Amino acid sequence: xxxxxxxxxxxxxxxxxxxxxxxxxxxxxxxxxxxxxxxxxxxxxxxxxxxxxxxxxxxxxxxxxxxxxxxxxxxxxxxxxxxxxxxxxxxxxxxxxxxxxxxxxxxxxxxxxxxxxxxxxxxxxxxxxxxxxxxxxxxxxxxxxxxxxxxxxxxxxxxxxxxxxxxxxxxxxxxxxxxxxxxxxxxxxxxxxxxxxxxxxxxxxxxxxxxxxxxxxxxxxxxxxxxxxxxxxxxxxxxxxxxxxxxxxxxxxxxxxxxxxxxxxxxxxxxxxxxxxxxxxxxxxxxxxxxxxxxxxxxxxxxxxxxxxxxxxxxxxxxxxxxxxxxxxxxxx
Length: 333
Hints:
Layout: H1 21-39, E1 51-56, H2 62-73, E2 77-81, H3 94-104, E3 107-111, H4 115-125, E4 129-133, H5 139-153, E5 160-164, H6 170-181, E6 185-189, H7 198-211, E7 214-218, H8 221-224, E8 230-233, H9 245-253, H10 260-264, E9 271-274, H11 285-294, H12 303-306, H13 313-332
Parallel strand pairs: 1-2, 1-3, 3-4, 5-6, 5-8, 6-7, 8-9
Helix pairs in contact: 1-5, 1-13, 2-13, 3-4, 5-6, 5-13, 6-7
């Protein structure tokens, strides 16, 4: 089981740009095996006795639970450091924190702000570091997404993937990189000012020349989803952004909402995906506030689509744990 991912032993998992297509495929294959074993009740304590530090400068439900359950299944103990439980960046530098944690733990997960932080943790700690989300990249989410797509369609080859909405940040970036690495067709659909960074696009286009991937950037939603296997979206306002941007985002992105009409413009077997949380109804504090202020019952996706048979968002959410487990096992097992 570990031979397929031996090239990742002792290495950090910071962004998909660092991995080969074969390494990504092998992680998905390992996740599939570990998922099967978990469902069958077969123990797989591949990291027995090791310790993992979970550093969260941004809170999370799925990322924290996925890392904790995955680590425990692998035989590891975890220490959770929330935004108030660490002095990193406040009273202690990132470099000093990295060297302290590296002396006490066998691995470190980081979820927070700039990519340079997780890169420095990896450089200075001397142990594998895992990116649970930065402003620029969210690589564990993409592994879960690709495992879910493979379970649904049997392959990643030939998949036509469409990302609707703001593609400038971690999800748009990481999905574009992942699709380029795996030879898929990627379309970012949004107003032009929401397209990914041109420098990253250029890197992905170079990768696509080697893998056969195609990258497209479209402003017309119906044109974008023609023949789409996957329609994917994310929240329009990211963590840490000021509330003042809601009005602008709603004005710009409401035409890119994933609704029933848009799903009908895609393939008959198309699926809907979202990394969650999603504003598909008014049953959250933020959703209710936005609904009252702007007169909307949903934002990036309607409840009709979110709760439909085409929606595979909870398969995707579960797969965060299985793919994170594969990453931990590959690096620390």
